[in-house]
């Protein structure tokens, strides 16, 4: 038995162990719908903070869903972060008809800040709620979602609640990319462990709910002014300061359509990918060396091996297929996306390396009209 046999056997064992952990862990994550929409006595005031930069296509339905929330004591603070499209006009029009909505306009970005982080910081400064919810300008809430979240925080005595919201993906290739991204996220961050493990943490930019006193105690966004992945860093700070944290799914209660297609996803991840690798090139190199045997080799092996080695790789792909079908069923996505399964690994490698090398070549992150120098981001992250 040669090298390819032992490689295939090792890949099968590792893939099975990983899939078992992910499936078992995911089954332990409760859903927001498990919590009743009843309130624990007096309803605490909630401040929802949403930042928008050129979000004219999505901001109105998102804000209308917030304004339709069934909650008695709610303020919504929408921050126009230097928009050049119709976003400011839409925000002002909605605010004129809704006393619960307050709009702040930012004309210039102060030095030493990322745009979104500064906008959320400003919104939090103007918020008066006992809890703050940070969300995005394209996230849509169902009316009972907030009541259920408040019920969860009160029942579990949480300092921070992160919601893994539903993701709408329409193109088959985008669905396949989302599937593998979801599995990768679960493998890396293990959200089922955040409630009981000191070293595990989570944050979700689409729904980060944090006690106001906890937010102030950790320093808020002023503590992470140049962190690109600000949602996860906020979660890290909460856990570092001993806060109680929980992650839930939100089937049918909160959803977002992040991208309309795979190409938009690849471009949209330009600011996140190298930041996720902590601006260190050795990290994508190491991940690629792991990824090639784990994700690419089983498909290649179907064409270049035979006998026991061939069937080991069939078993690896079969086990993965079972998990993928389960996720497809939960998300109500069609099976057509599986046609892209053999090539999605190459697409992911392209996404990682394209976006890492773009940052290196440019010497920084170009995002929505603003350049953030790489060395500045590195120093802020290390600090």
Provide an overview of this structure.
This protein has 383 residues and is an alpha/beta fold. The chain has two domains: 3-24 and 266-382, no CATH class; 29-260, Alpha-Beta Complex (Spore Coat Polysaccharide Biosynthesis Protein SpsA, Chain A), CATH 3.90.550.10. The chain is built from 14 helices and ten strands. It has helices spanning 3-26, 59-67, 87-97, 115-126, 145-156, 172-189, 212-217, 230-240, 262-268, 273-276, 282-304, 307-331, 341-362, 374-382, and strands at 46-52, 74-81, 101-106, 131-136, 139-141, 160-167, 208-211, 245-256, 364-367, 370-373. Strands 3-2-1-4-7-6-8-5 form an eight-stranded mixed β-sheet, sandwiched between helices. Strand 2, helix 3 (87-97) and strand 3 form a beta-alpha-beta unit. Helix 11 (282-304) runs antiparallel to helix 13. The chain is globular, with a radius of gyration of 22 Å. The termini are far apart. The model has no long low-confidence stretch (mean pLDDT 95).
């Amino acid at each position: 038995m040669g090298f390819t046999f032992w490689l295939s056997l090792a890949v099968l064992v590792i893939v099975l162990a990983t899939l078992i952990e992910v499936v078992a862990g995911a089954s332990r994550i409760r859903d927001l719908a498990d919590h009743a929409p009843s309130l624990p006595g007096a309803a605490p005031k909630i401040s929802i903070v949403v930042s928008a930069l050129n979000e004219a296509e999505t901001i109105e339905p998102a804000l209308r869903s917030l304004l339709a929330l069934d909650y008695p004591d709610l303020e919504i603070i929408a921050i126009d972060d230097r928009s050049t499209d119709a976003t400011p006009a839409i925000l002002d029009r909605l605010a004129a008809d809704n006393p619960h909505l307050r709009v702040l306009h930012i004309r210039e970005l102060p030095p030493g800040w990322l745009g979104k982080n500064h906008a959320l910081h400003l919104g939090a400064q103007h918020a008066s709620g006992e809890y703050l919810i940070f969300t995005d300008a394209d996230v849509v809430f169902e009316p009972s979602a907030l009541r259920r979240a408040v019920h969860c925080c009160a029942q579990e005595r949480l300092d921070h609640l992160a919601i893994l919201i539903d993701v709408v993906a329409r193109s088959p290739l985008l669905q396949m990319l989302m599937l593998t991204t979801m599995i990768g996220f679960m493998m890396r961050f293990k959200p089922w462990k955040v409630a009981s493990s000191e070293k595990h943490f989570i944050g979700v930019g689409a729904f980060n709910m944090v006690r106001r006193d906890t937010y102030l105690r950790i320093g808020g966004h002023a503590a992470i002014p140049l962190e690109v992945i600000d949602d996860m860093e906020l979660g890290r700070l909460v856990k570092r300061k001993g806060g109680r944290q929980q992650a839930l799914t939100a089937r049918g209660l909160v959803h977002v359509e992040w991208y309309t297609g795979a190409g938009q996803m690849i471009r949209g991840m330009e600011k996140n990918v190298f930041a996720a690798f902590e601006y260190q090139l050795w990290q994508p190199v190491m991940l690629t060396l792991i990824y090639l045997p784990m994700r690419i080799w089983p498909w290649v092996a179907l064409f270049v091996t035979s006998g026991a080695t061939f069937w080991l790789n069939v078993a690896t792909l079969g086990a993965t297929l079972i998990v993928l079908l389960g996720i497809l069923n939960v998300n109500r996505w069609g099976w057509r996306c599986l046609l892209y399964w053999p090539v999605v690994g190459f697409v992911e490698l392209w996404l990682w390396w394209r976006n890492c090398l773009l940052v290196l070549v440019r010497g920084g992150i170009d995002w929505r009209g603003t350049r953030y120098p790489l060395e500045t981001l590195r120093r802020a992250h290390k600090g």
